[in-house]
Amino acid sequence: MMPDRRSGPRRPGGRASGRRGEPRDRPAVAGALRLLAPVGVLAAATAAVCYVAAVDPNQEGHYPTCPFLSVTGWQCPGCGSMRTVHALAHGRIEDALGLNILAMAAVPVLAFFWFRWARARARGRPVRVKAARPALIWALFATVLIFGLVRNLPFGSFLAA
């Protein structure tokens, strides 16, 4: 009697080796494993936002003071970001815009890059390593520096937190 060629070579115990004997849910498991990092980052960000929403940064004693502010007396580009997150978590968008407009602009940008990363990981495609062209990175750096400078000048006081 001829062995059945469709089933492939047999393993000890009678089960065929190869793809036919493997569980069919391996692609689903692999896809879930690829999403562990994006889901972990999302969970950490959600936990941080929930903590800042629960513990008001407007009350003294809960968070340390900005080291740049305490040494120089000037607001750094990030000053007011925690209060911005607190205001956003409570649905006060106007207050958030008044505290740090640069942090408000960063929220949709960060969400875009997170979604792009998660989608690439879910599809099993390589994640782009290079963030952007150097000119764009320098433009972002200049924007942050100019924002930090202007918010400490008399005519830019509307940007101060």
Structure characterization notes:
56% of the residues lie in helices and 0% in strands. It is an all-alpha fold. Helix 2 crosses helix 4, helix 4 runs antiparallel to helix 5 (93-99) and helix 5 (93-99) packs across helix 6. The longest helix is centred in the last third of the chain and has 23 residues, at 101-123. The relative contact order is 0.09.
Model regions low in confidence, pLDDT < 50 over at least 5 residues: none
Number of helices: 7
Strand content: under 5%
What would the average pLDDT be, to the nearest integer? 84
Give the overall shape.
globular
Q: How many angstroms does the end-to-end distance come to?
A: 85 Å
How is the biggest beta sheet arranged? none
Q: Element order, helices and strands?
A: HHHHHHH
Radius of gyration: 26 Å
Helical percent range?
A: 55-70%
The structure class reads mainly alpha
The number of strands is: 0
Write the topology of this structure.
Elements lengths: L25 H9 L1 H19 L12 H6 L8 H9 L3 H7 L1 H23 L10 H17 L11
Helix pairs in contact: 2-4, 4-5, 5-6
Keywords:
161 residues
In a nutshell, what does this entry contain?
The chain is mainly alpha-helical and 161 residues long. The chain has helices at residues 26-34, 36-54, 67-72, 81-89, 93-99, 101-123, 134-150.
